[in-house]
Amino acid sequence: MSLLRLDRLSRNQKLALLAVALGLGALVLGGPRPGKIVLDERELAAIVEGEVDHVTPDELADWIVAGRQDYRLIDLRTAAEFAEYHIPQAENVAITALVDSDLARNEKIVLYSAEGIHSAQAWFLLKAKEFPAVYILLGGLKQWTEQVVFPEAPGESAGPVERIAFAKAAERAKFFGGASRAAAVAGPSTASAAPGGVGASGASAPTLPKVVPPPAPAPGGAAAKKKKEGC
Amino acid sequence: MNAPFFKFGLFGDEASLIVAFVIGIGFGFFLERAGFGSAKKLTDQFYFRDMAVFRVMFTAIVTAMLGLFYLAAVGWVDLSLVYIQPTYLWPQIVGGLLLGIGFIVGGYCPGTSLVALATGKLDALVFVAGVFAGIFAIGEVWPSITGFTESSNLGRLTLPEVLHLPMGLVVFLVVLMAVGGFWGAGVLERRFAASAAKEEK
Known about the structure:
The structure holds two protein chains of two kinds. Chain A is α/β, with parallel strands linked by helices. In chain A, about 40% of the residues lie in helices and about 5% in strands. Chain A is built from eight helices and five strands. Chain A has a five-stranded parallel β-sheet with strand order 1-5-4-2-3. The longest helix of chain A is centred in the first third of the chain and has 19 residues, at about 10-30. Chain B is mostly helical. Chain B has helices spanning about 15-35, 40-45, 50-75, 90-105, 110-120, 120-150, 160-165, 165-200; strands at about 85-90, 155.
């Protein structure tokens, strides 16, 4: 009897009926159960081994120049160090405040610290909190300074590929308020200790630019961090 | 294999553009198949003569909602990672009204105008030109109106949170609303299509 009635329904009516049935099922289920995602040590180790969670200074610099906004750049150093110099677009979040910060789990997060140890530790912290897309700036601010802000000219034996890459890096360095350096064959001739340098990281590098390059918005402004996602 | 795939790093930025392209083409294809490449069909919605827009949109909402709910229930989708546009209450009300006015005047919404343009409609060409002029104009004045556009930010809101109801109940209510709406749409169509036919005589 009921089968006979089902036959008389149009396809659209059957689909509507199916939707109602699934809706009833949802009513019974109540809500998606809070799934317990177990931290898989082997998977984490594989990520570390494969170095897929790294962003190189070159990549990050290109992102900033291109004006990409689909990630959050987190500076884990102290507020004083942050005020002295930080990478454009960076937000200062202390490692203790990381878990309670407004970082959302659906955001791509790039961490950096002076050299990389703190960011590696923060990476584990966020991974334990089930943040899926956490990346570390390879080599921290030290490598950023050496590679992006003050790129070093290749030696005399460098091939054309290296020379072209350096020319590009030198041009980009201007964007970040830096400059290229001559090849370090002769070694650092002057012992001009960089007064504005970032701690130990600026040992051989000239003074870091004091002023943040123009594309950086007022740091710390959460409202200025607009995401380009959704329709 | 967990979703959202992009958030779990199943593919990178470059591949995501290809995925977006394929999904976008699919979206456009089905909009066209629903008849939304015609401004006449779309504006008929506002006179209750043809409720196809309402039906298609609500069907899509219900399908996606049920799919996400059950995939999350079995643990294949992490809903907390699915992007939700933050609610900016007043800017979004004003924006919605502006879009509605443009829809009634121009006969298209942004997506359907591109679909219509792809099928060679000249009015869509004018509409798309208007869309780009509008994008350019708003881009020029944007810095001076951010005070408004970033006001009343309520963050990432969902119906279960606002109504303090279990998600399953909200899902069920939305399905009921849709099915009731489909039925009501048929009633409206029969009445207004009939009166429109009378007017034409």
